[in-house]
Amino acid sequence: MIDPIVYATPVFAVLIIAEIILSIKHEEHLYETKDFKNSLYLAFGASVITSLTKIAVLGIFFFLYESFKGIRLQLLGYESLGWAWWVWILAFFADDFSFYWYHRMSHSIRFLWAAHVVHHSSKYFNLGSGIRNGWTTMFYKPLFWLWMPLLGFHPIMVATAISINSIYQFFLHSKKVPHLGFIEYIFNTPKLHQVHHSSDMQYLDKNHGGILIIWDKLFGTFEREPDTNTLTFGLPKGPDTYNPFKVVFYEYNNIWHDMRKVPSWKTKLKYMFYSPGWSHDGSTKTAKQIQAGLKKQNQRANTYSA
Asked: Where exactly are the transmembrane stretches of this chain (predicted)?
């Protein structure tokens, strides 16, 4: 079976070129040459690694799917969920639920953030940034989907759902799409995804959903776009380079540096697995800590103004 992303890639290319042309025509400065070239290098590297690891991932999915048929039959009364239309709908929701938690954990655990930070490293929000992906993501991302073949979803169905989700997310990375009204109550949209890519402190770690935004609303990570529409994109502190290798390993290097400065292995592990920004001496803070401080400041300001 051919990955749906293969068919979508020419469409991606045409839309990126069209967005660049429109950006130049209307002097919107949505792209910067060196930044876009870096996105292409990063996308190429990620594509090569994903292609090489996909067979192994599918192999693991098939192993779990086949190995647990007997257990499913005993405990759940079936060997496989099959291919019925309603199973595809279940797979759609299960995949998007898995993506939400993969994405949220990629922002919450620093060692995972080190892989995902690449996607957020551009200061520009455009379709080109939609293909900017880390090279180490595929070594942990499939873990969040293992439960699906275990439960009886066919591995090909799982892989297809993952690809469809990825295709949809490409279209989220454009400033050319306006608000979509009632659609934004259920689905993730470019306007909502701009919030996710903002480097403004109050919007960090928000809107993690893939296709659906309902998970963010259920689990408390939803945030609407500000009325002022003055979002800043990129990272509060990120790699100031166009070298793709330095971008890929930027946060890993920072983790290594932080681990070296403390003697305790317990503290070293905290620098790996606690949230980005955590520090043993409070010299740097996590997004939640900063947001809590901003909330207190606003509450005090409102009290004084009243």
From this structure: 6-24, 40-63, 83-102, 144-168
Side-chain-facing half-sphere of 142: CA atoms under 13 Å: 20
Alpha helices in the chain (DSSP H): 4-25, 33-67, 69-75, 85-108, 110-116, 147-151, 155-170, 190-196, 214-219, 244-248, 250-260, 265-273, 287-305
Residue found under tokens 């980005």: 276
CA distance 295 to 306: 16
What lies within 8 Å, CB to CB, of 223 at 6+ separation is 195, 202, 203, 206, 207, 216
Distances (CA, A) of 38 to 17, 42, 130, 160, 249: 16, 6, 12, 28, 14
pLDDT along the chain (306 residues), means of 10: 91 98 95 98 97 95 98 97 98 99 98 98 97 97 99 98 98 94 96 96 96 98 86 91 97 98 96 97 93 82 64
> What is residue 239's predicted lDDT score, i.e. its pLDDT?
92
State whether residue 204 is helix, strand or coil.
coil
